[in-house]
Amino acid sequence: MRNKKNKNKKLPMAVLFIVLILLGAFAYYNKGFLRFSTVSDNYVFDYETGQNYQFAVQEGRIISLNSEGLICANQKGKELWRISKQLSKPSMQTVGGYTLLYDRGGRDIAAYSGNTLLWEKKTEQPIITAKINEKGYCGIVTYEIGYKGKIEISNDKGELIYSWKLGENYVVDVDISPDCKYFAAATISTNASNVASKVTVVDIDGERVSGETLREDSLIMSIKYQSNGNLFALAEGELVGISPKGEQKWVVSFEERQLQKFKLPYDTSIVLSFIGSRNNSILEVYSKDGKKTGEFISENEIKAVDVLDGEVLISQQSKAILLSLKGRVIAQADTGREIRGVFLMSNRKAAAVIGNAVKIIKL
Fold first, then answer.
1. Residues 6+ apart with CB under 8 A from 178
2. Which residues lie below 8 Å from residue 6, measured CB to CB, with a gap of 6+?
3. Whole-prediction pTM value?
4. Using CA of residue 89, residue 91, residue 138, residue 200, what is the dihedral sign?
5. CA 51 to CA 313: how far, in whole Å?
6. Residue 32 near residue 47, CB atoms below 8 Å
7. Cα separation, 223 vs 184, whole angstroms
8. What would the pLDDT profile of 305-319 be if each residue is shown by its tens digit?
């Protein structure tokens, strides 16, 4: 295991806060006291005003998270299991059957398979972000005294296999390759005239930097590995494709358009939504090699997006609209109430957050 340190440089904490705020703006939360709905068979949860909830779909089941823990229900609203855990700023990531649960800004983090605890730990310093991959390997980014931050990589048992303390740049995101041999870190730095972002790919076993992509005047917010080892890196003004060795392959410029929503999925197309000129949105779909494959211009603002198995789901006002990767409308459903969040499921179904409820929609 290697503990690597960069040379210190001055970097305003405000830059890191800007990135975290941008990331937070794309997360979905709602308020309420969660209960299993009795409104109809199509409703899974409903809630009254109170606490914050975050929702996700995992293998066809609905996951809800608040400061008291997780609840998993099936599509008919039957509770399957729950995990009780007190968190100040709860965050989760679901991949396959894995759930990573952590306290953003706190020190508690745990990994689960279903409701079975795989491991849990307390970090030495507050958590900035964390991510788990399809094999259960985890990357944790924390603050670190005397440094700009620290990255720890753990195996599927929670055992530490790599630690990197950074003295030069702040870390905003991390991801681990599907084969668990590499990890990538997105970092930011500034000087008197510009902001720059860098994606660094690290060989875990070789304990060395495999390669880097530097983007001047760019603020990278999120990175995502694909099954072939390539990476997507999303900045507020561009989308970048990166090779397994950390080399830049292609760039899609947003040409000063303002990013509204996005989805960086695993092994399917990328979905980006931009603010339109008529209080609407322009949705664009890009392939894994950065080629634009489709476009959809909405009548109203797109509130949420999701992508699964070659199809895209969006919401605008009370409508859930299913699109092909070319932007062609396949199906749609009008719920009669504004949709705040959507999660695409198999068999032409979706989970939608409508008012104070989560409902299953058939498309």
1. 133, 134, 135, 225, 226, 227, 229
2. 148, 166, 167, 168, 169
3. 0.86
4. negative
5. 27
6. yes
7. 8
8. 999 989 999 999 999
